UniProtKB/TrEMBL annotation:
<feature type="domain" description="SHSP">
    <location>
        <begin position="27"/>
        <end position="146"/>
    </location>
</feature>
<comment type="similarity">
    <text>Belongs to the small heat shock protein (HSP20) family.</text>
</comment>
<dbReference type="InterPro" id="IPR008978">
    <property type="entry name" value="HSP20-like_chaperone"/>
</dbReference>
<dbReference type="Pfam" id="PF00011">
    <property type="entry name" value="HSP20"/>
</dbReference>
<protein>
    <submittedName>
        <fullName>Hsp20/alpha crystallin family protein</fullName>
    </submittedName>
</protein>
<dbReference type="InterPro" id="IPR031107">
    <property type="entry name" value="Small_HSP"/>
</dbReference>
<dbReference type="InterPro" id="IPR002068">
    <property type="entry name" value="A-crystallin/Hsp20_dom"/>
</dbReference>
Length: 146
């Protein structure tokens, strides 16, 4: 099975194209959803998702019925309140950073081991390791003589 047919991203790509069309003033790298790379090895599928500025606690991953969901609700900048009566909260002249959220869903192939999926987060990269079940080897049947 090739990596292209593995996760069937066609559905999410339709929405990514729609997002780019709606956000034509914003570069495609900042519009829509985070991009994902998927690698296939003999014993696992490895997903890498770029999430700059996110922390591991900002991201939620779930797996149900071979549907892997990665989602987040992330606020870029938290308002600072006034620290005393003499010191008022800063007023923004321009505010381009905002709260963002996303949800990506992937249909995983049948050969995965759902109980062994692991995720790690380092330097803004979320890595999800999805182990594959060993291929079933044919069982040799002994022939007995009578």
């Amino acid at each position: 099975m090739s990596s292209y047919s593995l996760f069937n991203p066609a559905f999410s790509d339709i929405f990514d194209a729609f997002d780019r069309g709606m956000n034509f003033l914003v570069p495609a790298t900042t519009a829509g959803t985070p991009r994902v790379d998927v690698k296939e090895t003999d014993d696992a599928y490895i997903m890498e998702m770029e999430l700059p500025g996110y922390k591991d606690k900002d991201v939620e991953i779930s797996l149900k019925d071979r549907i892997l969901s990665v989602s987040s609700r992330h606020e870029e900048n938290v308002e600072k309140k006034a620290d005393s009566k003499d010191n008022k909260a800063p007023e923004y002249l321009i505010r381009e950073r905002r709260m963002t959220s996303f949800c990506r869903k992937f249909t995983l192939p049948a050969d995965i081991n759902p109980d062994a999926v692991q995720a790690s987060f380092h330097d803004g990269i979320l890595e999800i390791n999805i182990p594959r079940r060993p291929e079933n080897q044919p069982k040799m049947i002994e022939i007995k003589t009578r």
